[in-house]
Amino acid sequence: MESEKTNFYQKSKIRSDLEILGKVLASPNKKKIMYSLNTPKTPKELSKKTNLNFPTISKNLKILEKLDLIEINNKNLRKGKLIFISKKGMIVIEDIQKNNL
Fold it and tell me: Is the separation of the CB atoms in 67 and 60 below 8 Å?
């Protein structure tokens, strides 16, 4: 089984951790949020851009942050938080696009 994983990595040139990649691919909402972060946005802007309600955005942002796929600036503010995609998040997005996942 392990050699199948290694083989998949080599053939598709995926650079992401497969577990993290799987979590993003399994959730259309996480994928939508990641794709929307081509520029830094507030949670409210993300909600408008993705047509997802605010609680859904908030829940998914917490998960994406735990996975180190996004960074949140001004975390202690109630309003004015800025969400950035991290380097690790950029690699995940590139892998999804390159491999048509």
Answer: no
